[in-house]
Design brief:
Length: 287
């Protein structure tokens, strides 16, 4: 549970209150919340981590993994230090399957495949992928990064709804692999080109908007988490309450802004597509 102290600031109280309303799953060890658009997970006084640290309760909540401020969807929060340690191990050893939805500015070719591109600091500044066009000597803190992708629906070469499954967990991995690996920025991702709209996207999204409304938030959503043998992971820790599921699967629907942009672009999560392209069903590995 999350309790709000009488001395808690209004911002923290508001965040804690909203978190209570977006809990999708919880047990004695963890909870999954549906992170809303525009709130930071950590690093500021209006973040989720800051609010949880002021929770008026005996539980010591710990954020298990990161979501960028502009990313929505499932966020895993551990309720104890021991649970955090075990969950962190599962993430580090790739025992947790995470799936994300992204709206990309363009359609992947082929429609499904793997992006295998290391990520690091380019010339000690911004994060970037190591591609054939740059030298590894220009990078620092270079780490392997792998993402599989599958196109759910698309409108010719203009836009697509893509399911992304990160195998590794690097900072900005999905955003970079889309923008620099597939050369398809995520819609609304201003850091990696997602605000450089094509004529099709501009006319589809902005035709009925006033100039001061023409801001597109990033369309990247953590839609599902699956943890096999979940009950076994915590079997040695006594707990009260409901029985733990043998295999844990949590999922959440697309947020309103994401669905609205899909509708405007003519995309669907049911897999129907409109395309004049051929031979797009193959698989390819990008390096």
């Amino acid at each position: 549970t999350m309790n709000i102290s009488p001395t808690t600031t209004a911002t923290v109280a508001k965040t804690l209150s909203r978190l209570k309303n977006v809990i999708l799953y919880q047990d004695a060890h963890v909870m999954f919340v549906n992170k809303w658009l525009g709130i930071a997970v950590q690093g500021s006084n209006d973040s989720i981590a800051h609010a949880l640290s002021h929770n008026d309760d005996t539980q010591n909540f710990r954020i298990v993994h990161r979501l960028d401020k502009g990313t929505t969807g499932l966020l895993c929060i551990a309720k104890t230090e021991e649970a955090a340690s075990r969950m962190n191990y599962l993430f580090e050893t790739q025992k947790v399957k995470k799936e994300y939805y992204a709206l990309t500015m363009g359609t992947p070719y082929p429609l499904r495949g793997t992006v295998d591109m290391s990520i690091g600091r380019y010339k000690r500044r911004k994060l970037a992928c190591l591609t054939n066009e740059v030298s590894s000597s220009d990078f620092s803190q270079l780490q392997p990064a792998i993402t599989t992708y599958n196109t759910i629906s698309y409108i010719d070469h203009h836009a697509a709804l893509v399911k992304l499954t990160p195998i590794t967990g690097r900072r900005h991995q999905l955003r970079l692999h889309c923008a620099q690996g597939l050369h398809l920025p995520i819609l609304g991702d201003e850091l990696y080109g997602g605000n450089e709209f094509t004529p099709f996207i501009h006319s589809s999204l902005f035709s009925d908007l006033r100039p001061n409304e023409q801001h597109i938030p990033m369309c990247l959503h953590a839609t599902s988490f699956s943890i096999p043998k979940y009950a076994e992971i915590f079997s040695d820790i006594p707990h009260k309450g409901k029985k733990l599921p043998e295999h844990l699967h949590v999922e959440t629907k697309l947020p309103r802004h994401f669905q609205r942009f899909m509708d405007k672009l003519g995309l669907t999560s049911r897999g129907k597509s409109m395309s004049t392209r051929s031979n797009t069903q193959g698989k390819r590995r990008f390096r």
